[in-house]
Amino acid sequence: MGFKTGIVGLPNVGKSTLFNALTRTAAAQAANFPFCTIEPNVGEVAVPDDRLDRLAEIAKSKQVIPTRMTFVDIAGLVKGASKGEGLGNQFLANIREVDAIAHVLRCFEDGDVTHVDGRVDPVADAETIETELMLADLESIEKRLQGLSRKVRGGDKEAVQQDRLLRAAEAALEAGRPARSVDVAAEDAKAWAGLQLLTAKPVLYVCNVPEAEAATGNAQSRAVEELAAREGAAAVVISAKIEEEIAQLDPDEQAMFLDEMGLDEAGLDRLIRAGHDLLGLQTYFTAGPKEARAWTIKKGTLAPQAAGVIHGDFERGFIRAETIAYDDFVALGGEQAAKDAGKMRVEGKAYEVKDGDVLHFLFNA
User: Fold this and answer.
1) DSSP sequence for 119-187
2) Prediction pTM value
3) I want to staple 207 with a disulfide (CB 3.0 to 4.6 A). Which of 176, 201, 221, 262 is the partner?
């Protein structure tokens, strides 16, 4: 199950530097998990999770395979993108293909790096991109409503539902709010996702600060954090320059470098986890002598569908799931000890998988 986060931003905000750091990190991880650069502007990175290493140690696993996130370096945006200015059409098409948006904002002053608008104002930059996406959505909605009109008049249930949702999105956009601000009922969730509205995608603001302010942030990044709080979005403070340097070091050197900079962990680790959380994802594990592996699922996923992430046959022939909570697995020292202590549960098709579950699936081939 692949999940894509698109990295967007105005020119000269550090977007490409950040993506280069991500792909260098991914290349360094290549020996530890299956890595591929799908296209020049697409890369996969492991989602850092200390729990997986602990499970592998206990299970004496020969191989450790983390779950992965895909990041897409999306073509730069300029004002007028919604009307095709610059690489506007390509930009908008690429955003439609991702599940979430990581919006890199310039939170640093540097006379040698020109800002496209001649000033450094990350909140205004965020509003520029949001405005272009909103304008593109409004144009798309207008066309779709026209195309649905005949079916709506004929009473087609699916068309009536789409018409209702499109009009709710249109009302929000015309009020200056993104489509993600619309309260969507559970029974409409699938149809809403099918609309593929650009401003319906969750947003993570990435505040690119100077190296000296990577640990503390600055007034500009705090303004972005306030914006994110108002929108119910997420924000991460990061120094793209530092991350690019870290990505070229071996693990021991990385630890020393981070300590010298007063950082607890690499900003990319926080970025990757934030992207993971933004998409409403969680992780379950399988662990044994052959391999310890992390699997990504949406929160609320039931056991058969979680099994299907491993292989479709697991879902189709699902019988039951044997599950041990991560804390029990670790505290008791492994699967057999957890069984002996009565901490292994047998769950059926209605079981909602929890983050950190260590699972074993039984199925009919």
Assistant:
1) S--HHHHHHHHHHHHHHHHHHHHHHHHHHHHHHHHTT-HHHHHHHHHHHHHHHHHHTT--GGGS---GG
2) 0.80
3) 221
